[in-house]
Every structure is written in structure tokens, then in C-alpha cells.
Amino acid sequence: MSIDLPAPLSRYFLLANGEPGTHVEQCFAAGATVGDERQRHQGHTAIAAWVAQTRAAYQQHVVPLQLQVQDGRHIVSAEVSGTFPGSPVVLTHAFTLQGDGIVALDIH
Asked: What is the DSSP string of 56-81?
């Protein structure tokens, strides 16, 4: 299933899936934060390290399933599969956008 996502979100899912030529700076604002697995990552360098570590550890593939906009946040349900127990799972990605960049992402 294909859903119509705002450009920064589309770029994020390309990044999450290891698409060559896709970089953190194309998705996230300079001071952006990501919350995942009870850890917080802030700024391009920390987010890039988190993306690389997550890809290396889990070889995940993320498929957006549904988009809702609630209280100014873009909430995407996505199927995440990879080399982790219980794969695949559906996780909620809550994005806060500012201009053409993600300023916050929380994954649950």
C-alpha cells in the first residue's frame, strides 16, 4: 500500500530503509530530536549515528501504512521488519514538522 506523505517524511523512510544518497540533513532540521527505545538523539550527528546503528543491528525495512494528522503532528503507523525478536511489528512514528524539515520524531 502506498500513502501520500509530506516530503520530509518520505525522505525519512528512504533514509530508514538505507536508500543510497539519502542523508539525515535532507530530512531533519539542525536541532531535531529523535526518541526511540527510551533514548533521545539530538542533532544531525547523533541522529545519523542512531540511523547507522539501527540499520546495522536490525537490517530493518520500514513500510508506512497509514498517516493521520493530530494536534499538529503527523502520525504514521508503519510495519517494521528485520532481525529482531517479534519481527514484523507495527510502530507509531510521531513527527513534528517545521518548514521542510522534521524537528521531532518519537517512535513507539
From this structure: HHH--EEEEEEEEEETTEEEEEEEEE
